[in-house]
Amino acid sequence: MAHLVVMLVSSAGRKFKLATLFRREQVVSLGRHSGASINIIEITGNEETPGALLLLLSRTHAILTVKDGHLLIQDKNTLNGTYVNNQKILPNEWKTINNDDVITLGGCVFVVR
Fold it and tell me: In terms of CB atoms within 10 Å, which of 1, 7, 30, 56 comes out highest?
């Protein structure tokens, strides 16, 4: 299974092995909430940096799951949206993501590798 690689924040290059996350949970959450599977505040390494980035993110911004062997993402009806390859996905609808797809949540950018 793929990795989710951080591209644009202070810890660019950090990898999240999705297979490991999915062994613990059926749904992987991304956001600034302390309970998120991928916590954006932890990625930045500081609750205050970068402040503007955090303002663009919801507590639970998006979720990932696997269905029939496909990786899917869903925006959780956020103010600033979730983008896959620069295209905004509709809130609460599942979008298939593939290797090399770029996922943007607020000012945080990930790539699937």
Answer: 30
